[in-house]
Structures are given as C-alpha cells and as structure tokens.
Amino acid sequence: MEPIIAPSILASDFSRLAEEVQAIEGAADWAHVDVMDNHFVPNLTIGLPVVQSLRKATSIPFDVHLMITDPQRWAPAYAEAGAYNVTFHAEACEDPVALAKTLRAAGSKAGLAIDRDTPVEPYLELLPYLDTILIMTIKAGFGGQAFMPEMLDKVRDVRRRAQINDLEIRIEVDGGIAADTIEQAAEAGADAFVAGTAVYGAADPAEAIRNLRALAAARMGGA
Ligand code: DX5
Ligand code: ZN
Q1: 136 DSSP β-pair partners
Q2: 111: annotated binding-site residue?
Q3: Three-point CA angle 107, 112, 117, nearest 5°
Q4: Using a 6 Å CB cutoff, which residues line ligand 1?
Q5: What distance in angstroms lies between residue 141's CA and the mean position of ligand 1's atoms?
Q6: Which residue, of 5, 13, 144, 203, has the fewest CB within 10 Å?
Q7: Which domain does 200 fall in, by range?
Q8: Residues in the chain with pLDDT < 50?
Q9: Which CATH number fits the domain that encloses residue 185?
C-alpha cells in the first residue's frame, strides 16, 4: 500500500488559503482540513462555508478532521460539500457506526479519530464500518506540538486487528509528523500521515511532501 500524505492547512496562511492548497496539489494526496469549534477543543479555526468555497478552488481530495461537539448534527454537510473523507471524534459521538453509515450515504468516506487520552481497544470492533481511523499523536487542538511516540501502541493495535480481519482501512496519524518522526509511525503500521508544520513551515512544501513520502514508503515497504 502506498502512503497517503495529507498536509494540514492549519499551518498555512489563512489569508491565502486557495493558493496554499494549490501549492500542494500534485505532490500531496489529500489536503487535511482541521475544523475546530472552540468547544470540543479550545481552538477555533474554519467551518463549512470555508470548506465549500475552497472546494471550488482545487481538485485535491479533502480530508476533513472535525474536532467538534455534536458531529451527528454537523458532519454530513461536509460530505455533501464534497469532502473525500470526513473524520469525527470518538469522544464526541455516541453512535459512531450510525454516523459512519450516514457519511457514506452522503457520499464521503468515514473516519473515526481517537484523541490522546482515549484508549483504542473499545473501538477495534468498529473497524469494519470505517474507511479511516485517525490516531492522534498529540492532544487535539493545536498545530506545532511535539509528537508522542507512546501513541504508536494504538497504531500497532489497529494494524494487528486490521491484518487479522483482513480489513481495508487507512490508519492515519496526526500531530508532530515530520521527517524525524514519520518513519516510526510507518513502522508501527500507519499508512496515512498528516503534517502541518513540517509541510507549510518548509521553504518548499512540495519538496517536504516528497521527502516525507519517501521516508514513509521505505518503512512501510520494509514492514
Ligand atoms: C491538531 C490538528 C493537526 C495539526 C497538525 O489538533 O488535528 O492536524 O494541524 O499540525 P502539526 O503537523 O504541526 O503537528
Ligand atoms: Zn488534524
């Protein structure tokens, strides 16, 4: 399986969002869009109107990461707005399987995110209903935090279960992914990598993406 590289536009210049997304077109697989509501997390970022406008400005698939309360109410509109994948948080959702089904019916892939303080074991049974599972390698809420290698045990648990049950699921990591951390995440079994600061903080974002991809692919291939 080829790695997915998903730069987080949270680290980009919000006054030039369309150009910032266009700068990774062709090099990245997905654009990761962090939606924060100042409730589920303290930070406040962008929401549906921005995603709708941005959708018209680029062809790159959107990987929408909803760090919001009440995703049952708000998530389907992101699928309807043309998001490729919509990920909601386990901590905010009472019935993840029902929401995953709703999202798929609305035309997107369905993802479940597991925050730093949440164990993954109770959610392993849900993997057949999901297209992606996002393991936070920081506490959700802000970009630029330090990668937490101890979170990779969750990645290993998911990878093991996916292999045993022969599941087609993307295992995504988010938080502090950079050239010095992506290899260990790939070795643990991740195959989709969100990177904000490491891409948009680089002098050449496309080059940073190519470097991350090569590092991840080498470790995934060796697994
Ligand atoms: C934080 C967001 C991340 C963030 C990653 O809650 O979910 O996607 O943008 O930023 P870096 O790569 O800088 O840690
Ligand atoms: Zn994110």
Answers
A1: 174
A2: no
A3: 160
A4: 8, 10-11, 32, 34, 65, 140-145, 174-177, 194-198
A5: 8
A6: 203
A7: 4-219
A8: 223
A9: 3.20.20.70
